[in-house]
Amino acid sequence: MTNTIPSQSSSLDDWLFYLESVHPANIEMGLERVATVANNIGLLNTSSKIILIGGTNGKGTTARCLESLLLSQGYSVGTYASPHLIRYNERVRINGQELDDQYHVDAFNKLEQGRGSTPLTYFEYGTLGALAIFKRFEVDYVLLEVGLGGRFDATNIVTPYASVITTIDLDHKEYLGDTRELVAYDKAGIFRKDTPAIIGDLSIPHTMIDYGNEISANMTLSGTDFIFKEHDKTFSWQFEKHNLTLNKPAIPAQNAATALTVLSVLNLLPNVDVIKNCLANLVVEGRFEQLSTEPLVFTDVAHNPESARYLANKLLSYKDKGFKVHALAAMLADKDKAAVLKELTHLVDEWFLASLGGPRGDSANNLKEALQSVSTHDKVQSFESVERALSVILPKQQDNVILIVFGSFFTVADAINYFKK
Known about the structure:
Layout: H1 12-21, H2 32-40, E1 49-54, H3 59-71, E2 77-80, E3 92-94, E4 97-98, H4 101-114, H5 122-137, E5 141-145, E6 162-165, H6 173-176, H7 180-187, E7 196-199, H8 206-214, E8 218-221, E9 226-230, E10 234-239, E11 242-247, H9 253-265, H10 272-280, E12 289-292, E13 296-300, H11 305-320, E14 324-329, H12 337-342, E15 350-354, H13 364-372, E16 380-383, H14 386-393, E17 401-406, H15 409-420
Helix pairs in contact: 3-9, 4-5, 7-8
Enzyme class: ligase
Pathway: Cofactor biosynthesis; tetrahydrofolylpolyglutamate biosynthesis; Cofactor biosynthesis; tetrahydrofolate biosynthesis; 7,8-dihydrofolate from 2-amino-4-hydroxy-6-hydroxymethyl-7,8-dihydropteridine diphosphate and 4-aminobenzoate: step 2/2
Protein name: Dihydrofolate synthase/folylpolyglutamate synthase
């Protein structure tokens, strides 16, 4: 690794390599460092209205829904999401479009000149870089997806126009705690006094509501203030004067209902025809995304129990149509693999397990042990990589089988790259 500082004429790859190489090994929690750098280069003095989006699952899909509904009304929108699947550029969108490399290079160069001796993590660089780009474009609205937790996440340095919580479940237990109450308290750290806070979780832990009341946030609660109900092919949403029944979109309907509530609270909800059109055309990469028709292959980033339950419901609809379900899983070492696989074992007819590369990737062996701890499945094959697994599985796949490739953003990226080849 080299610590040679790139310049404004360097490539984006050079900059990303540099950001990884200077990532501090040990770094204190808190927002002081990130806020200091942001203030040094004037990133927090902005006219854009910022909507902070936190939660265990559904941040990206909720952001995509909000983005579509705002763009449909002529507003300019900047969206920040992480991680990316294939290219770093996916993390920042202006009006729904990725940007050329040079915009990211300019932002990183500005940060490097303004941070002085203050150390930053890779994610902190990315977050501040996104804020620099949004300020450059002077967008009307910024949709800022929170990374890990909320209270000490780099995104929490901003002053939000509204804060959103999508769902609450156990993930990153080593940082956020091993109960939903602890996780909820951390995520509630993105709330602000006298500021809208919309919570879409269907069973909100009391710690989140208690904290919101303590700081006098203007909370709007799922199940109390707005009602979401899921039906076979539609979902219903009720909030104040609104009572709509809409076709299910390609994203979880619960997240769509949360997005609708956010815009209604902010008096930004478009008319019903616009809502229907936006929902009908929503596509989010890596969320039960179809990669192939013959053979039938889908991929999903599901990597915690809650997202696995949503994936199970999707697969159940194919099972009900007479399909057999084959699953190719590859996961990171720090995930609760047994809990994730347990949500799917009753649906899967045949398992394929693959090792995942990189410093955080886990082996197919460990994945097999996790599967055996929750299932008596005897049809299990292991592979050295997702690519190798697909090269063996796909030529043999029959017409009555759906293959789901899941477990991580890295897993999905490997699958997408395989099909691109």
